[in-house]
Amino acid sequence: MDRRRFLVAGPLTLALSLKSSPAVAAQGTATGLRGQVVTVRDKVFSSLGVAPDEKTASAMIERAICHLSGKGSLREAWAAFLGKARVVGLKPNCLAGHGVCSSPQFVHALAAQLVDNLPGLQKIVIWERSDRDLTHAGFEIVRSGKVQCLGNDSAGYSPELIVQGTVGSLFSRTVTETCDTLINLPVLKDHGIVGVSVGLKNLYGAVHNPNKYHPNRGDPFVADLNCAPPLRGKTVLTICEAFTAQYEGGPAYRPQWSWPAGLILAAADPVALDRVGWRMVEERRKAARMMSLAQAGREPSYIITAGDSSHNLGESDLSSIRESVLD
Amino acid sequence: MEGCAVRLDRRDFLRSCGGCLAAVAASGLAAPARAQARLSGADIPDHEAMFWDPAESQRVQCQLCPRKCRVDDLERGYCGVRENKGGKYVTRVWGAACAVNVDPIEKKPFFHFLPGSNAFSLATAGCNVDCAFCQNWEISQTRPEQVDVYSLPPRDAAASAAQSRARTVAFTYSEPVVFYEYMYDTALAAREKGLRAVMVSNGYIQEKPLVQLCGALDAIKVDLKSFREKYYKEVCSGELAPVLDSLKLIHAQGKWLEIVYLMVPTLNDGEAEIAELCDWVARELGPDVPLHFTRFHPMYRLTRLPSTPVASLERALELGRKAGLHFVYLGNVPGHPSESTRCPSCGAVVVRRVGYTVLEVALKSGSCKACGKPVAGVWT
Fold it and tell me: What is the DSSP string of B216-247?
């Protein structure tokens, strides 16, 4: 199926007024996969800013999901994570526009797997902060059909203020009303204020006022935001696209500080995935003889906070995280 | 923060600009059609920001407010309206109004600045603090792309203000500091039309931009949130000390200054705090700076507290007078006797008010009609 046909595929007659069903799973711990992170590497990726083709991306996703779920087939694997999902939201990270940025090929490969393997699936929404962010990253805005793609500025925000710890925000209607399940699709990169931007930070894109949550390196704002019911209750997976990753100069793309990591990370535990991503960035910084993020005054302590007993979003202790690397 | 700001849809906006001009039309003048096209987020033009420095790796260092945001490329400052685009800092709200009304100037509140006149009031999205009690959070805590925005460049704003018979342009509702460039240009355009310009602000601004701004404004009202750093940090995500510096600077610049203090039960209404505040105002700014204690109502993220008891406000009134302040008012308590202004020399009522309505001004050339002594303020 080519990209255009895929985007408009599916029964257009599906009701547009689909109601959200109750959340099908909670973040991290509820799935019984606390502390487990799968890395799939493909050494084909040796150039910066090169995105995979959909077939390659799909194969990597398949390996990650099957391994993470312990299932033998893709259908069983997706059923394990999303068996009750009706409307799934996919949240890429398009801020940089290119380079260290979600690729349409990767996101479309994932969407195609969901369409092909989840009989009960009614709709997929690829969403970001704005239409502009999506189009800058190469996505096509699609407002109807089985696979849609639109920014929060098009979808709007729910009027109810949701207060969770230190945060008080309006959430995208895509998150609160349209989708019953979310898959977080971050990239792996340095961030000039909060240290690193991986999965937990990527969900800043769900709210209307992310600029309010950068003080103190995002701590505890990132953790508090991820505890808000619409996110905690609906986010079942994080799949980080790191064909190109970046260890300095983020969030904008800086090729001089990027490396062709050629990998994806997948986890049901968002904290464990972020902690592994943080470690990878630190390793690259060390190899480049750069000071650590802590020495640079931007240690991403929000990741530790997200794993503490009051947030309990997942496992932040590296020694307790079980990593599987599939080459 | 002043209440009752509204977000306008296009029809409301046109009504606001045009409706308030009905009297103008009736007097034989043509009603202007200054309301411009609604802007989508992508259509809001960039305008180079003032007060910032370039930093390494295409970062910028904002120098507008004490927060001094260090902003990465593609990101925005805490205010949500100033954006780093490839190492250049731009404002996304120049000429992009999201709220426009013609209000009595008493609503700001200014009680000693052209009483009984109207203020052409405008705002954009954004704020550089995040007060848990904000009455206008739906515009102050948003980005310009998230509210209805209309193109109203400075000269058009000034022209609409003049034709509305307002005597001032007021920058208000959200936080004008974050739309500094728009405010500054509009204030200058208003001056060319013979209008005054006033700002309703939290006073959270750096010295250099404030000094320059004072050259364009005629009066400033500052919302002093508390007299405790802890409250500023925990309830407002801000700081007290820079605000006190701003108050002293505004006063030193000779601009008319009024202060509002929103009393929030249990959080900033202690007698010791109020007494210290009043003593500080009397000592540092003098007894003629009006101090308004206003009543809190549950709002935004602070809905667990009751409204301020009037008795608490009256106790603050007593403390202010005890500190020697000449003009202490209670706000959001319609009909309270303290709404009116009394001559500090003889006690005669010189401006009689009910709510936002001025019933009588008993001043002649700025002096009390009863005793002839001057009363501090800008009266004509």
Answer: T-SEEEEE---S-HHHIIIIISS-SHHHHHHH
B191-232 residue pLDDT tens: 999 999 999 999 999 999 999 999 999 999 999 999 999 999
Residue carrying the six token digits 């709510």:
B355
- Is B238 touching A (CB cutoff 8 A)? no
Question: From the candidates A157, A209, A256, A290, which should be mutated to test the interface with B, based on the most B CB atoms within 10 A?
Answer: A209
The first and second tokens of residue B91, run together, are 């404002």
3-state class of A245 per DSSP? strand
Task: Determine whether the interchain pair A211/B58 forms a contact, defined as Cβ–Cβ distance below 8 Å.
Answer: no
Quote the strand ranges of B73-157, DSSP E. Answer: 82-85, 88-91, 96-97, 99-104, 118-123, 149-151
Provide the shortest C-alpha distance from residue B83 to chain A (in Å).
Answer: 11
Which of A211, A249, A252 has its CB closest to that of B77?
A211
Angle CA(B171)–CA(B175)–CA(B180) in degrees, nearest 5? Answer: 65
CB B251 within 8 A of CB B257: yes
A203 compared with A99, residue with greater pLDDT = A203
Q: Output the CA–CA distances (angstroms, integers) from residue B347 to B33, B289, B322, B343, B371, in the order listed.
A: 46, 17, 15, 5, 9
Please give the structure tokens belonging to residue A298: 């931007």
| B352–chain A Cβ distance below 8 A for any pair | no
In which element (H, E) is residue B368 found?
Answer: strand B367-368
* Residues A59-87: tens digit of each pLDDT: 999 999 999 999 999 999 999 999 889 99
Spatial distance between the Cα atoms of A303 and A68, rounded to a whole number of angstroms = 21
